[in-house]
Design brief:
Length: 208
């Protein structure tokens, strides 16, 4: 039953469709929003639409960016970062977490998720093909020294890591494959890990 007016009911419904927002949080946010000055609400709405419209995926690494090429890939193009070292992460938030450590000067590859049979996400649903394409230059020669697999320590993250290793081995690409160390807690999301732990995990990575 709709206890509130239909427009607040619709607002609660829309907010609930966001990840991590349950019925209670949606109600709390909805009531907060209707108590705000109209100008402020409009500014939030505009920034939502504007972000959705102008943000797209970097044509090289797949991270979210306003331009065709993200600032990290751009600086790699200019020779300021090591293009021959690619760190594979699940999403842009993980990339941001590693960037915050300030200790990594390679480039990234953002998968846009992890393989999860439970959620119906298969290898073709994440940016694996694009990763393989980046490992070879135009002549089919390997142009990368190291692929650092930094997917989360969750079941999905681990099986994605295994899949990538198998894929690269099958193609017989002469590239070193490493996995970040276990400093990242098992079952933990990289974005929630502190910078020191991430830096240690990166330093202590092991070859697969
Ligand atoms: Zn990029």
């Amino acid at each position: 039953m709709d206890y509130y007016g239909s427009s607040i009911g619709r607002l609660i419904g829309s907010l609930k469709s966001l990840p991590g927002i349950g019925e209670k949080s949606a109600q709390r946010l909805a009531f907060h929003i209707i108590s705000m000055p109209e100008e402020e609400v409009k500014s939030i709405a505009d920034s939502l639409v504007e972000a959705r419209r102008s943000v797209h995926f970097c044509k090289y690494c797949g991270t979210l960016t306003d331009d065709e090429v993200c600032p990290i890939c751009l600086s790699a193009e200019k020779g300021r970062r090591n293009k021959r070292q690619i760190m594979v992460v699940e999403n842009s938030r993980d990339l941001a977490a590693y960037e915050k450590t300030g200790r990594y000067d390679g480039v990234y590859h953002v998968l846009g998720g992890a393989i999860s049979p439970m959620l119906g996400i298969g290898p073709n649903d994440i940016r694996l093909k694009e990763l393989i394409l980046r490992l070879e230059d135009g002549d089919g020669k390997c142009c990368v020294d190291e692929v650092i697999i930094a997917t989360n320590s969750t079941v999905e993250g681990e099986s994605t890591a295994m899949y990538i290793v198998r894929l690269i081995r099958t193609l017989e690409l002469p590239v070193k494959i490493t996995r970040i160390a276990s400093g990242v807690p098992v079952g933990g999301d990289i974005e929630n890990v502190d910078e020191v732990t991430l830096e240690r995990a990166l330093k202590g990575r092991t070859e697969l």
